[in-house]
Design goal:
Shape: globular
InterPro entries: BCAA_transport, Leu-bd, Peripla_BP_I
CATH superfamily of the largest domain: Response regulator
Organism: Tistrella mobilis (strain KA081020-065)
Distance between the termini: 70 Å
Pfam family, one: Peripla_BP_6
CATH architecture of the largest domain: 3-Layer(aba) Sandwich
Protein name: Branched-chain amino acid ABC superfamily ATP binding cassette transporter, binding protein
Helix content: 40-55%
Strand order of the largest sheet: 4-1-5-6-7
Keywords: Amino-acid transport, Plasmid, Signal, Transport
CATH class of the largest domain: Alpha Beta
CATH topology of the largest domain: Rossmann fold
Length: 404
């Protein structure tokens, strides 16, 4: 009997070792998720393009980290917090996802701040601009990789005031957390710089008829009509504002969040002179042009700033996992925060304690048809806003992580 048991015991020991090795390999396998709007008003500047951006980042990391292939999943949150949170929990609890990216919706991002702390996971937000993300709802595990409301507000107002100092403003604002926050930040900057606000109106996400709101803006006589929305909403507003002749009558149309895809859809004649504040434009440098060419070959369009920051954040995360030698959340976060961010659009930027990546921002204006000399030649860069100046000062933040 003893002779039979020895091989059995050896087999059991071998199986135990194999199981342990499998567990270690599973623990070190990297899996990330892109949670974005695939089907609604913001799908054009995030959506499937954000998935493509993540794929390119994985390719540039070599396709493997810690010797394991990098897994990628994606989901459409439909701009609904319950759907977004449910998808994230399924990824974290059932599918082994360690980090999620994009989100592009402030309400969902704020809800996820609680989820990632409870599950000890990582979220890197692009396209969510509510000040609470790096303010009173900041977390150690949530990072903000792209623009935020303060940066958009400061960049737009300071840029416009160079040609319209002391101007008066009227706001058309989407009625949810992101819109309210961006409106408030912008009004604060306007008032600090000696301007005034003649009124505000709010509309539901996905509105198609803006005529009554635009007529109020026109009647206000404000120098600047600020459009606090994105995606299909802002494009519809600009189309209808053009039909009303608002810009032709002397009021300046200022979409506070505007992308190359929006300009392409509307045309230069309808958008010429409009401000654009962004952390990326495809035609800035040889590096941005090379990335845009790769991205366009895969996706059919040049990348938006949201999509570019998804690439940047995924690549930095994968570098941090490799440097940490583990997928463990706290070890990876420590490396992400210790390592400067370097890629085609980022030069040595660092992450502040509130999760804010202190990258440069840029103020552009849309070219006229006569100024545009080749396809997709849409923007003229006017100003670089250094990262140290672009975002809300730490002393003004409500984030407990920035307190002494």
């Amino acid at each position: 009997m003893r002779r039979i048991m020895k091989p059995a015991a050896g087999l059991a020991a071998a199986l135990a070792v194999l199981c342990q090795m499998a567990e270690l390999q599973a623990a070190d396998a990297v899996k990330i998720g892109v949670l974005t709007d695939m089907s609604s008003v913001y799908s054009d500047f995030g959506g499937q393009g954000s998935v493509v951006a993540a794929e390119l980042a994985i390719e540039d990391a070599g396709g493997k980290v810690l010797g394991q292939p990098v897994g990628l999943v994606s989901a459409d949150h439909q701009n609904k917090a319950d759907i977004g949170v449910t998808a994230a929990l399924k990824w974290f609890d059932d599918e082994g996802v360690q980090a999620l990216f994009d989100v592009s919706n402030s309400g969902i991002s704020l809800a996820l701040q609680d989820v990632i702390m409870k599950r000890d996971k990582i979220a890197v937000f692009s396209g969510a601009n509510n000040k609470s993300l790096t303010g009173d709802r900041c977390t150690t595990n949530g990072l903000i990789w792209g623009y935020d409301g303060y940066a958009l507000a400061k960049g737009n107002v300071e840029g416009i005031f160079k040609s319209n100092p002391g101007s008066s403003w009227f706001f058309l604002t989407v009625d949810y957390a992101s819109g309210h926050g961006l409106e408030g930040d912008t009004i604060s900057v306007i008032e600090k710089m000696g301007g005034s606000v003649k009124g505000t109106v709010r509309f539901p996400l996905g509105t198609t008829d803006f005529s009554s709101f635009l007529l109020q803006a026109q009647a206000s006589g404000a120098d600047v009509v600020a459009l606090v929305a994105g995606g299909a909403d802002v494009r519809n507003m600009i189309k209808q504002a053009d039909e009303f002749g608002i810009a032709q009558a002397g009021q300046r149309i200022a979409p506070l969040f505007f992308t190359v895809n929006d300009i392409q859809g509307l045309g230069l004649e309808a958008t010429k002179g409009m401000p654009v504040v962004a952390d990326f434009y495809w035609d800035q440098t040889d590096g941005t042009r090379a990335f845009a060419e790769r991205f366009k070959a895969r996706h059919g369009k040049v990348p938006t700033d949201v999509q570019a920051t998804v690439y940047s954040s995924v690549l930095h995360y994968l570098k941090a996992v490799e440097a940490a030698g583990t997928t463990g959340t706290q070890a990876v976060l420590a490396k992400m925060k210790a390592m400067p961010v370097n890629d085609f659009m980022t030069d040595g930027a660092t992450i502040r304690a509130d999760g804010r990546l202190m990258r440069d921002m840029y103020y552009f204006e849309v070219k006229s048809p006569a100024e545009s000399t080749y396809p997709l030649d849409y923007l003229a860069q006017k100003t670089t806003i250094p990262g140290a100046e672009a975002y809300r000062p730490a002393a003004e933040s409500d984030c407990p992580l920035l307190k002494p």
